[in-house]
Amino acid sequence: MKSFGRAVHAEFTKVTTTRLWWILAIIMVAYVALVAGGLTAILGSVGAGTRGPVIPDDQRAPLIYSFGSSIGYVFPVLLGALVTTGEFRHETLTPTFLATPKRGRILVAKLVALTVFGAAFGVFAMIASVGAGSGVMAAFAQDAQLGSPDIWALIGRAVLAMALWCAVGVGLGVLVPSQVAAIVIVLAFTQFVEPILRFVSGLADWSAQVGRFLPGSASDALVGSSFYSLSAPSLVALDWWQGALVLAAYAVVAAVLGYFTSWRRDVT
Amino acid sequence: MPAGVIIEFTNLTKRFGSVEAVSDLSFTVEPGQITGFLGPNGAGKTTTLRMLLGLVSPTSGTATFGGVAYRDLPSPLGTVGAALEAASFHPGRSAADHLRIYAQAAGLPRARVGIVLEQVGLEGYASRRVAGYSLGMRQRLGLAYALLGDPSVLVLDEPINGLDPEGIRWIRLFLRQLAAEGRTVLVSSHLLSEVQQSVDDVVIIAHGTLIHRGTLASLDMVDSKQVIVDSPNRDGLHWALQAAGYAFRSLRGGVIVDKADATEIGRVAFAAGIQISSLSQKRAGLEDSFLALVGEEGAL
After folding, report:
1. How far apart are the CA of A266 and the nearest CA of chain B, in angstroms?
2. B155 neighbourhood in chain A, CB within 8 Å
């Protein structure tokens, strides 16, 4: 147990001693703040009577705040995947396995350490979306709902979603140790493949039942609000805790498969 | 540092598909001295060392430290320090941070980081990112990692690669000091000349098989069958040697006679009435013996 704690500590230090995490965090915060603030401003200035989707006043704040995770989630995934594939790329698995020869222990330690990091990313992203969104709402004299316990519950669930996404990134990284391949998969899946799958799966009842288990759908179910539910309101969703379990299952299954396909192999 | 530990390889074998990289290798490495692990490139040295360190699983056989496999050591970095050929550093991380991570993982005091950086002479570069390091500095950082746990065994794969002459002299003295402290030191190299000034014992492998095991001096015992002879009357000497049926080469410094004995050549010259100015049995260099043992590949 003591040795596991040390392994988690070391995995955590690995992330803080390179520039990757804060570069990703800065881009994420800027991107989330721009989208959340910008969209609030656009919705506020066009006002009622537009042809776009009508957002009731009470749904505005949760929708805008959820941008922290609904568009920000790709950053913790990238962090988890890049940190893990970097171990293969820079051959740092050699000193790692020499210092801690129990390889399974290191993989679990990495999942734990990066889940914590993902939660930190969640906090940063929610500060960006809530900060920018509520600021612009205040400028338009709209209710930012910062006193609502529901909003704070949503913020908490979004942080949990971001934490789990980072673990999914670790799972992907150990399953696909090639850094370039992992980046391509993350970007293609999150920006292209999954949005299409989610849209198409919503067209029939049976496929909607399957589609709600897609990682993005599970994440949105966990957070409880997103612009997807706005564009396709008929989507069947999981309960929030089911969404969390599905997301965690993706991380664990990928990590277990990766343990057998790459992690346990000869390091040459 | 605990007392010296014996490294034991027992029937170690590794097959990659149909290729047998290491075949039934058995030998021991004793504490308190430097053992050179030699063989041409591709002989299976790195695979053997990686099996010893639990990074590669053997197809069969075992490699242990006093009977305990690396994976089962209670304190791996405190028992064995390893620096392997591959530069295993994240280029964006500083040397101190690199070492701090593994000190944390192994539960070593943080002060060890500064101590080992000073031991290898990198204290002035501790906070510089590894991306800016020269090959020689990376070798030193690899060595610093190996020393992190003050281990009683050191396993170094090609530690002299990439070092300048000053660095080579430094590492020789350094290894000598580590062995004098009672540690077990195993150093691999593909060039005997690189390590012959430092090692006490040699283990030579080629094609994954053990071909020689003994002291460095035991390599010198391999007899040379060449004689160097010269005469003011070179033509006469050539004629005499030819008549006696010897194969020879005439060089500026003398005539080298193959498969010959100095006494015999002296007798041939004397019988032919040729005055000779020098005569000696050519002493086989260690490198020649080494090359003869490992065969053609040694030339690489």
Report:
1. 4
2. none
Beta bridge partners of B94: B129
| Integer Cα distance of A158 and A164 in angstroms | 10
User: Which of these, A229, A230, A187, A185, lies nearest to A211 by C-alpha position?
Assistant: A229
Residues contacting residue A85 through CB under 8 Å, at least 6 positions apart: A173, A176, A177, A178, A179, A182
> What Cα–Cα distance (Å) separates residue B235 from each residue in B242, B244, B254?
11, 14, 12
Asked if B59 has any chain A CB less than 8 Å from its own CB, the reply is: no
Nearest one of B203, B213, B163, B217 to B44, comparing CA atoms: B203
How far is Cα A82 from Cα A186, in angstroms, rounded to an integer? 10
Distance CA B110, CA A7 (A): 15
Which residue is associated with the tokens 């995490």? A21
Q: How many CA atoms lie within 13 A of A197 on its CB side?
A: 16
**Predicted pLDDT of residue B261:** 84
Beta strands in chain A (DSSP E): none
In DSSP terms, which residues pair with B279 in a beta bridge?
A: B229
Handedness of CA A98, A102, A103, A105 (dihedral sign): negative
| CB-based contact, A7 to chain B, within 8 Å | yes
What tokens appear for B72 in the block?
A: 């089962």
Q: ipTM of this model?
A: 0.91
Question: From A88, which residue of chain B is nearest by alpha-carbon distance?
Answer: B88
User: Mind telling me how many Å the CA of B107 is from chain A's nearest CA?
Assistant: 7
Task: State how beta strands B60-65 and B201-206 pair.
Answer: unpaired
Instruction: Return per-residue pLDDT of chain A as tens, 268 residues.
Output: 788 999 999 999 999 999 999 999 999 999 999 999 999 998 888 765 566 666 777 888 999 999 999 999 999 999 999 999 999 999 999 999 999 999 999 999 999 999 999 999 999 999 999 999 999 999 998 888 999 999 999 999 999 999 999 999 999 999 999 999 999 999 999 989 998 998 888 888 888 888 889 999 999 999 987 666 665 555 567 889 999 999 999 999 999 999 999 999 999 8
Contact B145 A3 (CB under 8 A): no
- Chain B neighbors of A104, CB-CB under 8 A: none
Contact status of A9 with chain B (Cβ, < 8 Å): yes
Chain B partners of A260 at a C-beta cutoff of 8 Å? none
CA gap B274, B238 in Å, rounded: 10
- Give B145's contacts in chain A (Cβ within 8 Å): 95
Q: Tell me if A24 sits within 8 A of A73, measured CB to CB.
A: no
Start-to-end Cα distance in chain B: 38
Distance CA B165, CA A110 (A): 41
> Is the Cβ–Cβ distance between B126 and B93 less than 8 Å?
no
Chain A interface includes B75 (CB < 8 A): no
pTM of the model: 0.87
pLDDT at residue B118 tops 80: yes
Which chain A residues touch B91 with a CB distance below 8 Å?
A: 90
Q: According to DSSP H, which parts of chain B are helical? A: 45-52, 76-79, 95-106, 111-119, 135-147, 165-180, 192-195, 216-220, 234-244, 262-271, 286-294
